[in-house]
Amino acid sequence: MTVTIDNPRAPRTLPKRRGVNWEKWGWIYMRVSGIVLVVLIFGHLFVNLMVGTGVHAIDFAFVAGKWADPFWIVWDTALLWLALIHGANGMRTLINDYARGPVFRRILTWSLLGATVVLLILGTLVIYTFEPCPVGGPAELLPTFCGVSK
């Protein structure tokens, strides 16, 4: 019996695929977002823990003062979106690797997508609608830095 082995250096012809290669773009996103997230996370930790009096200064007034600057609103929004989508993409990979059966995999993937969208919307709303001193708010519920006499 004779066995022939194909030449390993012979050019291979793969079938042409149409459409977007989502796995490739997901892989690229994970690498790029990971690098950007390292910068965003260490910047976030440095400002919140090292500047000023450290962790003891983080309270409602600290967040209100930080989000009064548009730079920190954009910074925290980018951190939220990149981290959440990065994590969801990692979970999608785990679902694809370990979920048995196409129906169960589809249910988990759509549930993950739904949870990710809801969290992105809620987190973005919190960042952009945060108002520490609402006009006409009850004085006993407002923080002391709002300048309302109780």
From TrEMBL:
What cellular component GO annotations does this protein have? membrane
Task: From the Swiss-Prot or TrEMBL record, state where the protein is found.
Answer: Membrane
Q: What is the superkingdom listed in this entry's lineage?
A: Bacteria
GO molecular function, a single term: metal ion binding
The main place the protein resides is membrane
Q: Does the keyword Heme apply?
A: yes
Report TM segments. 28-51, 71-95, 107-130
A Pfam family matched by this chain, by name? Sdh_cyt
Q: Which UniProt keywords apply?
A: Heme, Iron, Membrane, Metal-binding, Transmembrane, Transmembrane helix
Q: What name appears for this protein in its UniProt entry?
A: Succinate dehydrogenase subunit D
Source species: Homoserinimonas aerilata
Q: What is the lineage of its organism?
A: Bacteria, Bacillati, Actinomycetota, Actinomycetes, Micrococcales
